[in-house]
Amino acid sequence: MQPAPTPDRLPLREYLGYALGDTASNLFFQTFNIFLTYYYVDVWGIPAAALLLMFPLVRLWDAVNDPIMGIVADRTRSRWGKFRPYLLWGAVPYGVCGYLMFAGPDLSAQGKIVYAYVTYTLMLMAYTVINVPYSSLLGVISPSSRTRTVASSFRFVGAFGGGLLISMFVRPLVKELGGDNETLGFQYTMAIFGALSIAMFWITFATTKERVTPPPQQKTNVLGELRELVRNGPWLALLLATIFSTTFIALRSGSTLFYFKYCVGDTGAPVWLGRFDASTLFLASGMASMMLGTLCLGVFARRIDKKPLAIWLTTGTAIAYAAFYFLPTDNFALLLTVNALGTFCMGPTSALVWAMYADVADYGEWKFSRRSTGLIYSASLFALKTGIMVGGFVLPWFLDFYGFVPNITQTPRALEGILLAFSLGAGAFAGLKALALVIYPLNQREVDRVERELRERRGEPAVAV
């Protein structure tokens, strides 16, 4: 007989329901990482140079909104808790705005740029409204650090599952639904993913609970909370790690289609791929490797502390990605193998870092006697989107600086730029993430002590660790 679920051992349906929220998030997040630059430049015809200004401006505005949303969520009072209501009411705007980004109306060149600015801004604001509370939910789903690590591993299996769906089915669906019209294909495909994301967020709302509340005597003070945040050393270390993490992910994912279209050549893919082109199989196998790595997290975490485990895994990803600069592009099996090694290491690292943020929320409550879960997670999303902003800027810069011109045979210089972005550039930012994790000060022994003392303050029973 299985033990009854408790705040320290959640029911399986809650783990699965929580995971679906990140599947919904990644139906668009991974689309932005993998396809957005390609869609804007190669499909819809926006000049790459225009993105050099648009991406930083829109993403900077979006990043600034995250802490504001975190402060709002921390002050929310409802019968559903602080964070869950936003999953209910934010799902429809999220799905609709995501679809509108890829609606592809027939506009003038200037009109397309304006439309891209408006719809991208609205989508990222909708993403903030729903994803800051969703991420913060991990910090209150259980008072147990180990239980939150399990929930985080489920979450990232869901996240990479969403990425796998995007990797495997976007290009085939675009071809199937749009035929020779890629713009129409993207329009129909993203309408499907928008509807799926709405349903998934509603399931997450229905299956999860909030179990950790702020101290009863806690007083809200925005300036005080912000001061405590910048004095929270573990959070500052994770801030740097998250910026570097999403920078290398955005740079790597965004350059993948360019790498295969112009450096490898999908037309030269092995015949056994069938209807899937080389880039689709490459992306899908990478997502599958991330899922496999995340599923192995429990085995790893029982033997190795979160901090050194995250450092070594991130270093493995950095080495694997940088190695692509030296790999022959005509050996598809070798490309798949090295990528699988890098993504296998990356999967558990993402889950570990987001579980660390929950530990940081505990640490903040322990040190300052004030719990600001929403602010901590929203500030982490600020870092995440800052990294996306940097990665989103760096890729168009590589394309523009090295003389990329869409849909022609590229010059050796342009090919070099694509290769650098895909390999050494991505690997370098992954290495910087590993260095940031080195300075993260909390180990499991300290986390257990903080958790134990917080339980004593709250009058909660101790649990075995």
Automatic annotation (TrEMBL):
GO cellular component: plasma membrane
Membrane topology per record: Multi-pass membrane protein
An individual GO BP term: carbohydrate transport
Bilayer-spanning residue ranges: 43-62, 83-102, 114-141, 153-174, 186-205, 235-260, 280-300, 309-327, 333-354, 375-398, 418-442
Major location category of this protein: membrane
GO molecular function: symporter activity
Gene3D superfamilies: MFS general substrate transporter like domains
Cellular location(s): Cell membrane
Annotated keywords: Cell membrane, Membrane, Transmembrane, Transmembrane helix, Transport
Family listed: Belongs to the sodium:galactoside symporter (TC 2.A.2) family.
Name of this protein: Sugar (Glycoside-Pentoside-Hexuronide) transporter
Organism: Opitutus terrae (strain DSM 11246 / JCM 15787 / PB90-1)
